[in-house]
Design a protein that fits this description.
This protein is α+β, with helices and mostly antiparallel strands. The chain is built from 38 helices and 43 strands. It is an enzyme of class 7 (translocase).
């Protein structure tokens, strides 16, 4: 795959999360025929291999060619997994439209190559080449020579172009062409038929191996265990298929309502028509009427405004106001034409339009932006259908482990062939015995045994109200070492309490007006701002909206209503929202205030503005937002000189502070014609709104538990930096003895290059500090730099963006101690989490798809994409999840070790017996496989998680030295014991190949017994298995399997002690009791059934002694060496071993760097030292900024 023909290789979705490499191939008839013949002669094995290896299928059937000529494409993901898949190139024929609309290659619709859809049509035969990958359709762009996504409006379109081209709707011909090429606007998730799920599950390599094993066992008349494995496999397959079917049905019900919505579509010539939503195409003009409308696609609002419930996407059912896309003359793409977030103009698929407010034309119009799986809801569903693979070392090590067992089995097969061929055994017997070795060395029950631990952990989590849709991620939780928290609603309570308001005049700030006193706020611009500067709506007589807006409005005791038909003010639409003072209010000179227009709040702008009309009074504009942003739009003389210190008083106490400002407007302008830039200038500062956002009771204890377990905690919030720092200190995320270092980075301005400065935050010293975003106390001098871990970095989203762009080499150093990230936009949050993922294993409450483990505290539809969902709305679920993850991980290791030892014990025993051309009988195998190992495999995993989080994690790899040493040592110990038993039994005075029992008869000595050929009893059984070696090896192997289970069953510090697992202990006692009973029972019928020979009591005692010694040595080695963490740490220090993880390397570099952290310094991007260090690129930063 290293050399490609010209045009054979390209990138699909370049720079996006689902980026793939695409290769062109052409099917060859002769290759296809050869593959067909190979499939027949291999009895279906070749197609099975092709099913497992899609790339091999393409390479066998096709020859490389350019993508333009390809009839098959091979796709490979560009992530570390490099997953292959292949797709057939299909043709879409437009000739059907020829007769209906007279479409010819010369038709104006065909010749206009401005849009991708026209560039994809091949002339003159009017055909389109396309492929469908993960539910998204891609067409071949003949002009650019590449496959491009279809089903969306082009990103390069300017707002003027959208208004001009799509403002009047599409013609019927355009609609039909787009329907044919883009496909239906549906999010189809078919309920997968049970037979399909069954076939997919059965074709798993593990079950194919089980099928091979079962066929072999039936040929050897080993029916009992074969039936047991069949029953276990049927149960396992049934449970998996049931689970997958349930998920499929649930997802189908989640999206089916989306596909059957009736919408009003305006055609260029046809006018307004009622159509099914499935026929919508990008560019269609939607007419939104009435309330409670579910959006069937993504659409950009071009006229009127809407109030939308985006709970499906964000997990928060807070009404959001959407404004029309302004028509601007600029040719800049519409998404980047203003500094505000473009999403405020977009109605996303799956969200509910609560209210549609018409503009002067009387309609609310929106242009369809994206359809089907290209939409926001489609993207959410695709993330569930095609989840990100789990990149965890354990699973890669498990494959290597199985390959090692296969290698061991191969050696055993060669040994078996040599022994049996030299012994002159029949060929079919030789082959059967050789194949037997594979089923012994590679235990078919291994995957089933491993999944039981995860199933038990999932069940325990469910009892605690934590639900999991991706069970394999439970093991990943055991390795987590960093948790990213949101602030509001996660660390602090959801609701805000209005604490007070600080108004100001020319003399500065006034006394705080406390709402707890019950006194009403006196009338004035500040009261008017609180009553009208919000995005609240009146729905079914109930006021709904953002909790902050709701608290602010309730504090005024005003009322909300719609204006009547008699309400006629120039530029004010009928049925406008009006706020009025309540009847009990006195000394309010206005009847009410009509809200004419809103510029909604966005996290990028950190503010919102409204234009209002006092009834019988002035037209005003009110602004509300982050204090530092609002102050920057105000006339400097209106902002009190004590602004910074006043703000600091409240933010250092953890209050959330909002600033208010206003200005008077001219009455002769229409409200909607005013631009945001015009309105948001020369404002008069009004004062500060103080809101209390208390910590949840559970927050501090949980954070203390995580920190004491050396799990780093990070806060990512959209709130003020000082408030975030205060919450971090109050919650214990930053302890009292630790320093907080503020990092400020500024973009390139004029002649000066980008800069970064480092300042120590001091809590008690108040100084005037007038920078744009961070009004906090700074300490000028600091004597000690502080050792690693004694300081935390705090920075804003703006600084993070600048550092990512201009100081990428510093980013990993900052992330190692970066704890507080404030004023972060959604895109910046995703980017930060992705950066952190490269350093550590992360659990996250934000950017759920980006983290290794995402957990949602919401039961909204958006949370279905999260691997974990907690019904308890606080962070108590985090320690539980980590504890269960650690327990499940340790359980997986225990099972790996046990299954390895069990297979090796059987393998060693059988190979020793093969030396004598003997083996274990079916009943002997059955007893070991079913009565011992299966029961242990089911019960060994029942230990719960240990209630305390310890300050270290379990090993994350199977090939870690302690685990490898444990397995190898115990294999060698068992091998030595088996060889000793095998040799010693042959040297016993009573041993004879011809004797079938050596039990002592009363009053007879062993010597007499062995001298007299008539004394021994002859067994009636003619079994070929019975021998003293067989009996000795079977007892040693069977009881060894029990003792090894006890040695490997780990308790503290990650699981509950073994003695608390009562079922497991009971099973071991019963098994050991039964084995000892068989050993000492002297019951001829029982021995005959199990193909055992009676041996002298002394030899039986010798077997027990050998097993006891094995158990004691194994247990001592396991506890004193393998599990002795202090010893391994000492060995590491002695040999100078250092972790090779990138995070640890950076950590060591910083610890040895005397100049880190820099304090009271400012560096510029063009300085040579800023380029030093590890380069840390972040190519997805911009693309993440674009994602919802």
């Amino acid at each position: 795959m290293g050399h490609f023909e010209k045009g054979q290789h390209a990138l699909l979705n370049e720079g996006e999360e689902n980026e793939m490499e695409i290769f062109g191939y052409r099917t060859q008839g002769c290759r296809k025929s050869l593959c067909l013949a190979g499939s027949i002669f291999s009895f279906g094995i070749l197609p099975l291999v092709f099913y497992w290896r899609p790339a091999w299928h393409v390479w066998a059937h096709c020859v490389p060619c350019s993508l333009q000529e390809a009839d098959t494409v091979l796709l490979r993901t560009t992530d570390e997994f490099q997953i292959y898949s292949w797709k057939k190139v299909i043709w879409i024929y437009l000739s059907a439209l020829n007769s209906a609309f007279g479409l010819t290659p010369d038709h104006p619709l065909m010749t206009d190559e401005e849009y991708i859809i026209n560039r994809a049509i091949r002339k003159p035969d009017l055909k389109v080449r396309c492929i469908k990958v993960q539910k998204i359709r891609y067409v071949w762009n003949y002009l650019e020579g590449q496959f491009q996504k279809i089903g969306s409006l082009e990103d390069w379109l300017s707002s003027a172009k959208i208004h001009q081209k799509f403002g009047s709707g599409l013609t019927r011909e355009e609609q039909e062409i787009r329907r044919l090429i883009c496909g239906p606007n549906t999010i189809d998730v078919e309920v997968t038929p049970i037979w399909k799920l069954l076939i997919k599950e059965v074709l798993n390599p593990f079950y194919i191996f089980q099928l091979f094993s079962v066929c072999l066992w039936f040929s050897e008349d080993y029916k009992e265990y074969a039936f047991a494995i069949i029953i276990m496999s049927i149960i396992s397959i049934s449970l998996t298929v049931y689970d997958l079917r349930e998920q499929s049905v649930k997802l189908h019900h989640l999206v089916e309502s989306h596909n059957s919505i009736t919408v009003s579509v305006c055609g260029r010539k046809a006018g307004v028509q009622e159509l099914e939503s499935r026929v919508l195409v990008p560019g269609d003009l939607l007419i939104l009427t009435g309330n409670k409308v579910l959006m069937p696609c993504d659409a950009v609002l071009i006229e009127g405004s809407c109030v939308v419930d985006e709970g499906m996407l964000t997990g928060e059912s807070i009404p959001v106001t959407k404004t029309p896309l302004p028509k601007m003359d600029s040719s800049v793409p519409w998404k980047t034409q203003s500094e505000a977030d473009y999403k405020r103009h977009v109605l996303f698929c799956g969200t509910e339009v609560i209210q549609a407010k018409a503009a002067c034309s009387g309609t609310v119009r929106a242009v369809v932006l994206q359809t089907g799986f290209n939409t926001a809801k489609g993207d959410l569903v695709r993330s569930i259908l095609y989840p990100k693979p789990v990149n965890f070392q354990l699973y890669r090590d498990a494959i290597r482990f199985l390959l090692c067992l296969v290698g061991t089995a191969t050696i055993g097969m060669i040994y078996t062939l040599c022994v049996y061929v030299l012994s002159g055994e029949p060929p079919e017997e030789v082959v059967r015995k050789a194949l037997d070795v594979i089923t012994i060395a590679v235990p078919p029950a291994l995957p089933a045994a491993l999944t039981t631990g995860i199933i038990y952990a999932q069940r325990r989590l469910k009892k605690r109200g934590i639900f999991c849709i991706s069970p394999q991620r439970i093991n990943v939780c055991g390795q987590l070492n960093l948790v990213c928290f949101d602030k509001t609603g996660t660390l602090t309570r959801d609701g805000l309490d209005l604490w007070g308001v600080v108004s100001c005049d020319r003399n500065g700030f006034q006394e705080v007006h406390s709402f707890a006193s019950g006194q009403a706020l006196p009338w004035g611009p500040l009261c008017a701002a609180m009553a009208s500067c919000h995005s609240l709506i009146l729905l079914d007589g109930t006021i709904q909206g953002d909790p902050l807006d709701l608290k602010m409005f309730e504090a005024t005791t005003w009322e909300m209503a719609f204006s009547g038909d008699d309400f006629h003010i120039k530029g004010v639409p009928a049925h406008a929202m009006v706020v009025k003072p309540c009847r009990t209010a006195s000394q309010v000179p206005v009847e009410g205030i009509a809200i004419l227009h809103q510029f909604p709040f966005s996290s990028a702008l950190q503010r919102m503005t409204v234009i209002v009309q006092e009834m019988g009074g002035d037209r005003l504009a009110f602004m509300k937002g982050a204090p530092e942003r609002v102050a920057s739009f105000c006339q400097p003389e209106t902002v009190p000189t004590s602004f910074v210190s006043e703000l600091q008083i409240y933010t250092t106490q953890g209050f959330r502070v909002i600033a208010l400002a206003y200005k008077k407007l001219e009455n002769d302008h229409h409200a909607t014609t005013l631009t945001r830039e015009t309105v948001e200038s020369d404002l008069i500062f009004l004062g500060l709104l103080i809101l209390e956002n208390r910590l949840k009771e559970e927050t501090k204890p949980v954070l203390e538990e995580l920190i004491s377990a050396r799990i780093r905690t990070v806060m990512i919030t959209g709130d003020n930096l000082q408030t975030a720092i205060t919450v971090a200190r109050k919650s214990g995320m930053v302890s009292e003895s630790q320093k907080v270092i503020l990092i400020e980075a500024n973009e390139t301005t004029g002649s000066s290059s980008a800069s970064i400065s480092w300042t120590l935050v001091e809590e008690k010293k108040h100084i005037t500090y007038g920078n744009q975003d961070n009004y906090i106390n700074i300490r000028d001098e600091v004597s000690d730099k502080g050792r690693e871990g004694s300081y935390h970095f705090a920075l804003t989203g703006k600084s993070f963006h600048v550092i990512s762009q201009h100081f990428s080499s510093l980013l990993p150093k900052i992330l190692i101690n970066g704890t507080i990230f404030a004023r972060m936009s959604p895109g910046q949050k995703s980017s930060l989490v992705l950066c952190q993922c490269r350093c550590k294993l992360i659990l996250c409450f934000q950017a759920l798809k980006m983290a290794h483990v995402g957990i949602s505290l919401s039961e909204q539809e958006a949370s279905v994409a999260s691997p974990f969902t907690s019904k308890t709305p606080n962070i108590e679920c985090v320690p539980h999840l980590i504890k269960e993850g650690r327990a499940a991980l340790v359980t997986s290791f225990c099972m790996f070790k046990y299954m390895a030892l069990y297979s090796m014990i059987q393998y060693v025993g059988v190979l020793l017996l093969y030396w004598e051309t003997n083996s274990l009988s079916n009943y002997q195998f059955l007893f070991q496989d079913l009565a011992i190992t299966t029961l242990i495999g089911v019960t060994m995993n029942l230990n719960g998680a240990y209630p305390k989080l310890v300050p270290f994690r379990p090993a994350g790899r199977l090939i870690s030295p302690p685990l490898l040493l444990s397995v190898i040592f115990n294999i060698l110990l068992s091998l030595a014991m088996h060889i000793a038993g095998f040799i010693l039994v042959q040297r016993q005075p009573w041993y004879s190949v011809e004797i079938h029992s050596a039990c002592t008869v009363q009053n007879e000595s062993i010597s007499e017994l062995t001298m007299s050929p008539t004394a021994p009893e002859k067994m009636e059984s003619n079994s070929t298995f019975t021998s003293f070696e067989n009996t000795t090896i079977w007892f040693l192997g069977t009881i060894n399997c029990i003792t090894v289970a006890l040695v490997f069953s780990k308790g503290k510090p990650f699981r509950q002690p073994t003695y608390t697992n009562y079922i497991f202990v009971f099973v071991l006692i019963i098994q050991l009791g039964v084995c000892l009973f068989i050993l000492f029972a002297d019951i001829p019928e029982l021995y005959r059934r199990l193909d055992l020979l009676c041996t002298p009591v002394l030899w039986r005692a010798s077997i027990v002694i050998m097993l006891s010694l094995n158990f004691i040595v194994s247990l001592v080695a396991e506890e004193a060496v393998i599990e002795n963490r202090a010893l391994w740490m000492m060995i590491k220090r002695r040999f100078g071993y250092q972790s090779k993880s990138q995070y640890r390397i950076w950590q060591r570099d910083l610890a040895n760097d005397p100049s880190w952290p820099p304090l009271n310094q400012t560096s510029h991007s063009d300085m040579p030292e800023c380029g030093r260090g590890v380069s840390y690129s972040n190519p997805v930063f911009e693309s993440n900024e674009e994602q919802l």
